[in-house]
Design a protein that fits this description.
This protein is an all-alpha fold. It has one domain. It contains 17 helices and no strands. α3 packs antiparallel against α15.
């Protein structure tokens, strides 16, 4: 079973740490599903958890290997874990969008041809490029994250040599500081010179518009008025490095790792740091430079220590949330398709209830239930496909052949 951005050999991790990682991913995917269902509040920040844990899992698995790493084999393995399922969901999205066009009254040729640009853009990972002007996200807005995380894969061998291979704490921390500075400089350039907007900040503009998030300063004729500048790895380099440095600490000094990071006071500190990061969003552009890193640092400390507490106090809840974490990659890929379908159904079905508040509430609950059930079914199907020989063949005929 494939964990979201985690190596299969993370079973080398201590059981307590592995359980905490799955718990964090489970809680994060719940946040993400909820905000895609109702785009308000802070649920989008679950993405920060996956970024940090990606840096942690990749670095830990590499450090535990005794021999030198073959980066060609490493790339093939990473692409095998991510791309077959991703490509399958791209195809599902194309078919769903074609069906929507048919129901809207378009002829069959138009219904099949119009979604092709979205299919090709997603399948070929064209959103990896900074200058990609395509803004279409339907029917699966979650797919932006896959090209984004692959941009980290492309940079990971260099980051690993820079951060994880050094023997002294001072050099590791210096490299960590450099990664943070690169993130801040890049984000400042994206904000002040490229007219960009950090990913998902529009959720806050909808929730608290009176606080003056300066979205009105973004020009209407520039491609970076959307989020492209922030869908590339330098915009989150510092938070990815948080996970890398934590993995180095766990491998080299497990006792200090547990003593420093896993204690209730660190959880409280993480929650306060997370609140400070959210407050930075309302300070305008300069606050946006630092907000994501601060949020990521706070949320991972908060989640990990919350998981440590619940593992002792509410083991049944901890176990269920950890199981969600194991399935989080498939849930992440599929849930937005169900959200898209139910959103298309919402208006026609609402009109049948003749503005009855109770009826509309029952409808919304039913649609959300359909999302949960549909996501469970599609995740199971996707997991079976991911284990199939066809998925192996896809990679052997593409990236594995190119890297020989």
């Amino acid at each position: 079973m494939v964990n979201f951005e985690a190596e299969k050999n993370t079973s080398q991790l201590p059981a307590s740490v592995l359980g905490l990682l799955d718990f964090c991913k489970g809680l994060a995917i719940v946040w993400i599903v909820l905000i895609h269902w109702r785009p308000e509040w802070f649920g989008w920040q679950g993405v920060h958890v996956f970024i940090v844990l990606s840096g942690f899992g990749l670095t830990y698995s590499c450090l535990k290997r005794d021999s030198d790493i073959s980066w060609k084999k490493w790339y093939v393995k990473r692409f095998r874990k991510v791309l077959p399922s991703y490509w399958m969901v791209c195809l599902w999205g194309y078919l769903i969008l074609a069906c929507v066009y048919l129901f809207e009254g378009r002829n069959l040729l138009n219904a099949l041809s119009l979604p092709l640009d979205v299919l090709l853009t997603n399948t070929l990972l064209l959103k990896l490029t900074l200058l990609n002007p395509i803004v279409k996200v339907e029917p699966n807005g979650s797919l932006w994250f896959i090209p984004f995380i692959i941009s980290f894969y492309l940079a990971f061998p260099w980051l690993y040599q820079l951060i994880a291979k050094h023997k002294t704490v001072r050099v590791v921390l210096f490299a960590f500081l450099m990664a943070i500075i690169v993130e801040f400089v890049y984000r400042a350039i994206a904000l002040y010179w490229l007219d960009g907007i950090p990913t998902a900040y529009r959720h806050y503009a909808k929730l608290f518009p009176v606080l003056g998030v300066p979205l009105d300063k973004l020009p209407t004729d520039f491609r970076f008025k959307h989020e492209y500048a922030f869908d590339f790895f330098p915009s989150r380099l510092g938070e990815f490095a948080i996970g890398m440095v934590a993995a180095v600490g766990l491998v080299r000094n497990p006792s200090i790792f547990h003593k420093v990071l896993l204690n209730p006071w660190m959880g409280v500190l993480g929650f306060l740091i997370w609140l400070a990061g959210n407050a930075l969003i309302y300070q305008g552009f300069w606050g946006w430079v630092f907000a994501d890193f601060v949020i990521a640092l706070g949320i991972i400390l908060w989640f990990v220590n919350l998981g440590s507490l619940l593992q002792k106090k509410l083991p049944a809840f901890f176990s269920k949330m950890s199981q969600l974490g194991v399935w989080s990659y498939y849930i992440f890929l599929t849930h937005y398709l169900l959200v898209f379908i139910t959103q298309k159904m919402d208006a026609p079905l609402t009109s049948l209830f003749d503005n009855s508040p109770i009826g509309i509430k029952v409808l919304r609950v039913s649609l959300f239930g359909a999302i949960i059930v549909g996501t469970w079914i599609t995740s199971r199907i996707l997991e079976r496909f991911d284990r199939s020989q066809f998925s192996d063949l896809l990679i052997q005929k593409t990236f594995a052949k190119l890297l020989k």
